[in-house]
Structure formats: structure tokens, C-alpha cells
Amino acid sequence: MVLTEHEVHQGIAELLKGFDHPSADLEITGRTALADGGLELTSLDLIRVIVGLEEHFGVELNDDLIFDSSFDSVSDLVTVLLSGSSEAELDRR
What we know:
Blueprint: E1 2-4, H1 5-18, H2 43-57, H3 63-67, H4 74-83, E2 89-91
Parallel strand pairs: 1-2
Helix pairs in contact: 1-2
Domain Carrier: 2-85
Pfam family, one: PP-binding
Protein name: Acyl carrier protein
């Protein structure tokens, strides 16, 4: 399974719209902050997005990988999602 950054960004946007999150209409890029000054996600929102992305893309992330990661930007989330799946590869187009 090959994922692009764009597909992951779209997945995040779809999840936020599904949660009726206030930032759901923002343009999402790799540099978009997950919290302050960006998507304004709370810690609970972030967990919901991670779980939603796991379900959406059919991957399961190791808890240690999640706990040992920093989630400052969308790019950080993309990196964790893809590094946590041995079958997923990132095509940076």
C-alpha cells in the first residue's frame, strides 16, 4: 500500500469534518500546527484523529511509537502514521 502525504492530509480533513471540528475547513499542509496556531486540536482530538487514521488506512500503530513521538505538526503525524505501518510507504509528491 502506497500512501501520499496528500492522501493523509485529506484523511485528516475528512476526520475533522466528521468530528464537526472548528478547524475542519482549514487548508492542511505538512507545516500546519496540530495545536496552537493551526488545527487547534486538544489531546483528545489528537487521539481521535490517530485512531481514525488507523481505521481509515488500515494500519495499527504501536503504542510505544505514539508515546515516544512529538506531534507538533501534520508532518509529524504523517511520519508516525507511515513509520508505524510496515506496509505503508510515503510517496512525497
